[in-house]
Inverse folding.
């Protein structure tokens, strides 16, 4: 069993003061609307900790109008001046990182150390994008016609963007979208998840306090379907960016396509890990446990299917199971906690559904496999073995603390199994053989491939997938270019 903390006070860890959630439109906080409010929960106890005002038609109209005005002002600001404003915001984000991290943990549940790393990394992501914004160079094309003095290919901001982000990284994911948009000269209407509104608002507040003009960055929340339909249909919104499930991402993509709007999506994955015969099975298992159970497995690039060479399988399994059982599980604000709760009670039901289905197909539960008997929404770190390919967990993203262990005999077989699903976000491989490393790098069908490590997401690198895992990229230069249009200018004398 995992080590369970926080049982002396079964109700909850001591929470810091949780700020009142609000909307933010045209430079103003809105703490109440005519459309009522919705509860915000502490997932470590299940208690309601705040009420979030719901953005209705009036607020959505105001946000779109503000973004349109904000864009016309912000696009004319020189890239160097935009960078200076953005860097003032990221300086505030780093200064406030401990306080923002505590808020993040209150509403999302992850360990406080993970939350603070997320906030600080978000500042790095935004800074990189702002720096790249100064280098959006035009490209000259030699003319073919006499009298044409110059021809240039320019990158110009696409326009106001609607950005939809989920709850699992409530600062990092908005930062990717906000950073790219603002660096390119776009304005933003951000719609964070209603379960984690205060973290996103704290990020927005840093930009407001840094002097970002009113209307350039707005925040709305409430009823997701109503908001997405209204914003995507609004003629003033030129770009849509979404991070979330495949099902919702396809629905929003269809709405954007119907309006002829630019669309970027990151839609999750089912990441395979191929552990070759020459790898250090125990060392890889240690790394894999940390990667798998980070944020309770609620990570789109989380490793799920561990394909281990049969000669190394027993050593890997024993080390991995021991590591999973040793994890300290409890409220994220408690010292030493390594894994917090799931985001909502329905996610507990989803995890149990995956485990029960796997059992019904003949799988073995090596550890975990049940909800922890304590307040809050905690599920034990779980390892499944001998899982037939017909089981749901072999085909559907669990998005939780479930790992599936399988053995393989031939590397080509392992690569084929890794690529068998429609997902293609992240994939990983471990080997000391250079030829095997190149076979994995070339053969694994994913937007991001990590060989001998799990660190595929950095501020300087593009984040995105192939196949059903999405369209386009965020972060890196590619994340900036996604908020630009190509404009060709030819001038004759």
């Amino acid at each position: 069993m995992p080590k369970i903390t926080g049982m002396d006070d079964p109700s909850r860890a001591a929470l810091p003061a949780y700020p009142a959630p609000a909307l933010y439109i045209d430079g103003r906080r809105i703490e109440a609307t005519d459309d009522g409010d919705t509860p915000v929960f502490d997932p470590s106890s299940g208690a309601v900790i705040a009420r979030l005002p719901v953005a209705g038609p009036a607020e959505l109209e105001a946000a779109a109008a503000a973004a349109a005005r904000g864009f016309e002002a912000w696009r004319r600001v020189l890239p160097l001046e935009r960078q200076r404003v953005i860097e003032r915001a990221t300086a505030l984000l780093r200064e406030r990182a401990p306080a923002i991290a505590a808020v993040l943990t209150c509403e999302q549940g992850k360990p406080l150390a993970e939350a603070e790393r997320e906030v600080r990394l978000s500042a790095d992501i935004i800074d990189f994008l702002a720096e790249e914004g100064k280098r959006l160079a035009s490209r000259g094309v030699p003319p073919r016609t006499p009298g044409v003095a110059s021809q240039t290919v320019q990158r110009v901001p696409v326009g106001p963007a609607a950005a939809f982000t989920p709850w699992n990284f409530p600062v990092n994911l908005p930062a990717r979208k906000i950073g790219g948009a603002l660096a390119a000269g776009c304005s933003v209407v951000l719609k964070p998840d209603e379960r984690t509104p205060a973290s996103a608002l704290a990020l927005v507040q840093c930009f407001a306090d840094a002097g970002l003009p009113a209307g350039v960055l707005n925040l709305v929340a409430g009823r997701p379907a109503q908001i997405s339909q209204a914003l995507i249909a609004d003629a003033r919104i030129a770009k849509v960016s979404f991070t979330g499930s495949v099902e919702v991402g396809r629905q929003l993509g269809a709405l954007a396509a119907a309006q002829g709007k630019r669309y970027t999506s990151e839609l999750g994955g089912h990441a395979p890990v191929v552990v070759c015969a020459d790898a250090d099975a125990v060392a890889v298992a240690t790394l894999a446990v940390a990667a798998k159970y980070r944020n309770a497995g609620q990570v789109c690039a989380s490793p799920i299917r561990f394909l281990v060479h049969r000669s190394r399988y027993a050593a890997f399994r024993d080390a991995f199971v021991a590591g999973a059982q040793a994890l300290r599980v409890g409220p994220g604000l408690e010292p030493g906690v390594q894994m917090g709760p799931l985001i909502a009670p329905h996610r507990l039901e989803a995890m149990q559904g995956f485990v029960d289905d796997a059992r019904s197909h003949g799988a073995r539960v090596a550890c975990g496999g049940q909800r922890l008997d304590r307040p809050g929404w905690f599920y034990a770190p779980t390892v499944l073995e001998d899982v037939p390919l017909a089981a749901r967990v072999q085909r559907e993203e669990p998005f939780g603390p479930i790992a599936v262990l399988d053995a393989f005999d031939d590397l080509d077989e392992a690569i084929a199994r890794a690529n068998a699903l429609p997902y293609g976000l992240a994939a990983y491989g471990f080997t000391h053989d250079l030829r095997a490393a190149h076979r994995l790098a070339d053969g694994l069908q994913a937007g991001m491939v990590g060989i001998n490590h799990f660190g595929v997401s950095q501020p300087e690198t593009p984040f995105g997938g192939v196949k059903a895992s999405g369209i386009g990229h965020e972060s890196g230069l590619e994340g900036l270019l996604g908020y630009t249009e190509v404009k060709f200018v030819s001038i004759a004398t």
User: Anything to note?
Assistant: Residues 302 and 432 are 23 Å apart (CA to CA).
